[in-house]
Design a protein that fits this description.
mainly alpha
Length: 46
């Protein structure tokens, strides 16, 4: 089960633009949770 979860997370990071964006933003601005509030509404409407 842990392996399946890990593989699915890796797939999401590779194939889903919103997941890639979240991953990159979390690395660029550590400790800042407000970035997701800025771009997530745009991702949801796309």
């Amino acid at each position: 089960m842990v392996v399946d979860l890990t593989l699915e997370l890796a797939r999401l990071m590779e194939q889903e633009p919103s997941v890639r964006s979240a991953t990159r933003l979390s690395r660029e601005r550590p400790g800042t949770d407000s970035w997701a509030q800025v771009w997530m509404p745009t991702v949801r409407t796309a």
